[in-house]
Amino acid sequence: MRRREDLTMESRRIQVHITHVDPITHHLFFERFLNPGRKDPPDIDIDFAWDERNDILKWVFEQYGERQAAMVANQNNLGFRAAIREVAKVYGMPAEEIGRISSRVVRQKDLLGFSAPPTNEQWLYRLSHILQLHAPWPEILAQALKAQNHFRHLSMHCGGVVIVPEEIRRYVPVEYTAKRLPVIQWEKDQAEDAGLVKIDILGNRSLAVIRDALAAIVKHTGPNDRLRHLGSAQRCRHARCDPTR
Length: 245
What we know:
By secondary structure, the chain is α+β, with helices and mostly antiparallel strands. Helices cover about 35% and strands about 15% of the residues.
């Protein structure tokens, strides 16, 4: 598996206020993030309070527009149960029967007593015999074995965003979600292989707890310079105050 590391420990992030953790001051090692031996770009993960993430994504698209920014996709493939269901629909099988047979097959498929890995034909013959499957189910299962692990549909990555300097369609094909968000047709590894840098804009509940706790302290005790050293420069949106004043 390709090693992917977080960029936020890199010292230059201090200068652009992505992080307030100074790796030099705190004697943190970051050679693994920046070194001549790395062939792949670092993974950039930026955490925000969970209830502010959508506002950040909105700002990204307002700043760069759909011309230069898009979400990263997940490419979803057919699992075996889903493949059975999709093929059975093509054969016109009733929904109740599809659910019942697919559940029985999934429960039994690894309990057939083979001493060595079987061929698909051997596996299908024994399964059909044990479950007493009648036509067209053996044929449906044979087609499902061929269909499994094939591409089914795209979904949207939870927080991955790609930003490019020019028209994004010059780099990657783009489509739109039902909510009209632009999504590239490549998943994260394909985007990286093409030289695109993915930025993960993530929601973190712990940051919201810290933000609200700092806001409560300021509300009840007044501004406190010591709070600055807790490393939070977030705006306390709900309390309308800045705990780092």
